[in-house]
Design a protein that fits this description.
About 30% of the residues lie in helices and about 25% in strands. The strands form 3 sheets. Strands 4, 14, 15, 16, 17, 18, 19, 20 and 21 form a 9-stranded mixed β-sheet that branches. An 8-stranded parallel barrel has the order 5-6-7-8-9-11-12-13, surrounded by 4 helices. The chain binds pyridoxal-5'-phosphate (PLP) and lysine. Homodimer.
Length: about 425
């Protein structure tokens, strides 16, 4: 069920009129739905009920403490890529034994902290990282639980910037080289080989690339068993896409059932790292029209949200739906480019959108819960927007709007001569 829908001619977030949120908290602003986060997480957890599994929400998609806390309360695991994400999960009440640590460039201090708190597993991406982890674990006198992230060389059929499972990508260990690296890992005194991991890309809208990758990974698991290396868990990463426009990705249930069919009766715990499919459609970004500027060539609606607030359109030419909060019928629909105040031609949130607009109108950029606020910046010295979470008929400020003082706090002029 969509938690952002029209009622009585205006957009609601759960039980709250979005226009009231704009009145009370200003724009631009990110608005999340607690129920949407919960429903999206449960779709994974329920499809895996009855067999060993761990759904590790990919923190990078939206790392707000309230989001992590809502998911932690449901018993979620977490996929992290930095010690910063680790500390966020811990502060939000996440269970360290349900955390997997991914990422190509883990620092020794990050490994140490993760070992101290007892994360579930490190997803290791290179020989050199194995050596580093073995040394750090040795210093602490512990054994580090390890999975190798393999690169299965499959085409995820997604945007090149968010495809990660091809040979030419920086991620993972070439699957053909994996048996050698597993043998090395198994011989290291401070490592405990537990699993295999792969993540082939993001915003995948069909199951075939996942199944191609899975077939290759299962062949590896079977070959390792013959070499005496037992793999206990299989982490298939994240990557399931969402509907931004007309895409029709499989539901988490269909995607999971397809994978379980291939896994068959192998005794493997299934670990998943969904980010976008839990967070994207649990949020909108609210923005207001400042000016309408029509030229001979284009119609620009200049809005108060910009590329610094949401960079996906500028970075990937990503398309996200932009809808009126209070649709109007007193002016004609026209084609508008929705552009922000930042001094870049690439500062747009949408182009050629058919909308009936007047200055002061509120717009909602949909599917903004993932890779939205987390990728925001202070470019042009703009304060980042607040994050608000709706829960039923209540709205909570889960991150305050930044102030100029927040931005300047860490900067210093040179001392006087
Ligand atoms: C290792 C890893 N796991 C999980 C994710 C989450 O992916 P998504 O948001 O597409 O589910 C990513 C990002 O693509 C990733 O790099
Ligand atoms: N940030 C990207 C996805 C990257 C996925 C992270 N591995 C997006 O907005 O689509």
């Amino acid at each position: 069920m969509d938690q952002f829908s029209y009622r009585d001619g205006q957009l609601f977030a759960e039980q709250v009129a979005v226009a009231d949120i704009a009145r009370d908290f200003g724009t631009p602003a990110y608005v999340y739905s607690r129920a949407a986060f919960e429903n999206h997480y449960r779709a994974y957890d329920e499809a895996l009920a009855g067999r060993p599994h761990l759904v590790c929400y990919a923190v990078k998609a939206n790392s707000n403490l309230a989001v992590l806390n809502v998911l932690a309360r449901l018993g979620a695991g977490f996929d992290i890529v930095s010690v910063g994400e680790l500390e966020r999960v811990l502060r939000a009440g996440g269970d360290p034994s349900r955390i997997v640590f991914s990422g190509v460039g883990k620092q020794p201090h990050e490994m140490r902290r993760a070992l101290e708190v007892g994360v579930r597993c490190f997803n290791v991406e290179s020989d050199a990282e194995l050596d580093r982890l073995n040394a750090v674990a040795g210093d602490l006198g512990v054994k580090a639980p390890v999975s190798l992230r393999v690169n299965p060389d499959v085409d995820a059929g997604t945007h090149p910037y968010i495809s990660t499972g091809l040979k030419e990508n920086k991620f993972g260990i070439d699957i053909t080289d994996a048996p050698r690296v597993y043998a090395r890992a198994a011989a290291m005194p401070h490592l405990d080989v537990q699993g295999v991991d792969c993540h082939i890309g993001s915003q995948l809208t069909t199951v075939e690339p996942f199944l191609d990758a899975l077939d290759r990974v299962l062949a590896l698991v079977d070959a390792l068993a013959e070499d005496g290396i037992t793999i206990r868990h299989l982490d298939m990463g994240g990557g399931l896409g969402v509907t931004y426009d007309q895409e029709q990705p499989p539901s988490p249930g269909d995607y999971i059932r397809a994978m379980l069919g291939r896994i068959g009766d192998r005794e493997l715990e299934l670990v998943l790292e969904p980010g976008r499919s839990i967070a994207a459609n649990a949020g909108i970004m609210l923005t207001r029209v400042e000016f309408l500027k029509c030229t001979e060539h284009r119609n620009f609606a200049i809005i108060d949200g910009a590329m610094n607030d949401m960079i996906r359109p500028a970075l990937y030419s990503a398309w996200q739906a932009i809808i009126p909060v209070q649709p109007r019928t007193d002016v004609a629909e026209q084609s508008w480019d929705l552009v922000g105040p930042v001094c870049e031609t690439g500062d747009f949130l949408g182009k050629d959108r058919r909308l009936a607009l007047a200055p002061g109108d509120l717009l909602a950029v949909r599917s903004a819960g993932a890779y939205g606020f987390v990728m925001s910046s202070n470019y042009n010295s703009r304060n980042r927007p607040p994050e608000l979470m709706v829960d039923g008929d209540r709205v909570y400020v889960v991150r305050e709007r930044e102030t100029l003082e927040d931005q300047l706090r860490h900067e210093h002029c040179l001392p006087d001569e």
